[in-house]
Amino acid sequence: MAFREKIAWVAFLSTVLIWGAFFVILVQIPHEARGLAMLGPFIAATIAQAAVMIVAATVWAISAPKEANAPADERDRAVGRRATGIAYFTLILGVAAVIAWLHFGLHGPDTIFALAGAFILAEAVRFGATALGYRKGV
Q1: What is the mean pLDDT of the chain?
Q2: What are the pLDDT digits (tens) for 51-109?
Q3: Which are the contacts of 110, defined by CB distance < 8 A and separation ≥ 6?
Q4: Which of 10, 8, 3, 120 lies closest to 55, judged by CA?
Q5: How confident is the model at residue 36 (pLDDT cuts 50, 70, 90)?
Q6: Is residue 138 predicted with pLDDT exceeding 70?
Q7: HEC per residue, the chain
C-alpha cells in the first residue's frame, strides 16, 4: 500500500471514529445543555484527529522517506480531483439539508453542530473516496 493511500485510510477511519464518537456524545446531551458544554469534546476531537494524523504520517514517513517525499503524480492528482468533487457534492447536500432543517425548527447551537456535521461528513467522504480511488484505480 502506497504512502498516500495509507494516509487516506487513516484519515477516513479516524474521522469516522473520532467524530462519530463526538456526535454520539452530542446526541446524548439534552438540548438545553448543549452549546459551550460541547466545546471541550469538540476541542478534544480536533486534537485527537490531529494527533492520529501526525503520528501516522510520521511513522510511515520514517519507514519510507523516499515515498513520503515523492511529488504527487498524475494518478494522485486524478484521485484527489475525483474525491474532492464527490465531497463537494456531499457538502452542498449537507448545507442544503441544514438550511431546510432550519425551517422545521433547528435553532441555536444545534445549527452550528449540524453545519459542522455537514463539513465533517464531506471530509470523511473525501478521505474515503481517496482511499477507494487508490484501491480501485480511479
Answers
A1: 93
A2: 999 999 999 999 988 888 888 899 999 999 999 999 999 999 999 999 999 999 988 88
A3: 31, 34
A4: 10
A5: confident
A6: no
A7: CCHHHHHHHHHHHHHHHHHHHHHHHHHHCCHHHCCHHHHHHHHHHHHHHHHHHHHHHHHHHHHCHHHHHCCCCHHHHHHHHHHHHHHHHHHHHHHHHHHHHHCCCCCCHHHHHHHHHHHHHHHHHHHHHHHHHHHHCC
Length of the chain: 138
> Which whole-number Å values give the CA distances from 138 to 10, 19, 39, 77, 96, in the listed order?
19, 27, 38, 10, 28
Contact in structure between 114 and 101 (CB atoms under 8 Å): yes
For cell 439534552, what's the residue?
30
**Contact present, 127 and 7 (Cβ < 8 Å):** no
